[in-house]
Amino acid sequence: MSKLTRATLAEQAYVELQDQIVSGRLPAGRRLFADRIADELAISQTPVKEALALLERDGLVQGTTRKASAVRRFTREDIIEIYEARLLLETNAIAVGRKAKRITPAFLDELRRTHESQKMHAIRAMNRNAGDLAEALRFDREFHECIMRLTRNALMISWHRTILRQTQTIRTHSLETYNTPRSWQDHGQILDALVAGDFAEATRVLRDHVNGSRDQLASRKQEDLPEIT
């Protein structure tokens, strides 16, 4: 971990730990000791404990003992519930955007730029470039966040952002596992349907896209939690 020297240390520790959890560098079940993290970041334990509390609020960390927390391990039931909530939010966003006439040429241009950026970095990531993988994942999230912004509902957008962090943590993409073609190809179909004004088709593809991800993860063999003492 890189040392933190600027102000708002709790917030910076939160961002640092969140990034490590979402990226998989801190895997599910890993114990998180406030004193050890504080030493690694060269800060006191107080901001670290505040950061861990925020991560627990986000559903990324679970409190296990007074001395340590642990990176959350998601069960099959967790996965189904999380994806159900995500699907409800995103399909509702398309319905709201259509009704409010917010699916404008400007919105479609923004969505197209995001999709094209994801596709470019995803293809490059096939050549085992970790930097491009990170960018592909960033634009992958941005595509769905762009759809959510159609609601102009700050609370729903916040919920959705938390859910996306959880789903990415569950999946823990790597250069070997990132399903590059499926992701950007599905996004391209959603974009094409929105451009054509076929909102039913856009919603269908989005539903299949999210449910496909859910089913892939839910069918995965659940690994045993490491022993926590």
Topology:
Elements: H1 9-23, E1 31-33, H2 34-41, H3 45-57, E2 61-63, E3 68-71, H4 76-99, H5 105-125, H6 130-148, H7 154-171, H8 180-195, H9 199-218
Antiparallel strand pairs: 1-3, 2-3
Give a quick rundown of the structure:
The chain is mainly α and 229 residues long. It has helices at 9-23, 34-41, 45-57, 76-99, 105-125, 130-148, 154-171, 180-195, 199-218; strands at 31-33, 61-63, 68-71. It is built from 9 helices and 3 strands.
Key words describing this protein structure:
single chain; 229 residues; mainly alpha; 3-stranded antiparallel β-sheet; 9 helices; disordered C terminus
What does this structure look like?
The protein is mainly alpha-helical. It is built from nine helices and three strands; from the N terminus they run H-E-H-H-E-E-H-H-H-H-H-H. The chain has helices spanning 9-23, 34-41, 45-57, 76-99, 105-125, 130-148, 154-171, 180-195, 199-218, and strands spanning 31-33, 61-63, 68-71. The protein has a three-stranded antiparallel β-sheet. A hairpin with a 4-residue loop joins strand 2 and strand 3. Helix 2 crosses helix 3 (45-57) and helix 4 (76-99) packs antiparallel against helix 7 (154-171). The longest helix is centred in the middle third of the chain and has 24 residues, at 76-99. The radius of gyration is 19 Å and the shape is elongated. The protein starts with 8 loop residues before the first helix and ends in an 11-residue tail after the last helix. Mean pLDDT is 86; it is low at 224-229.
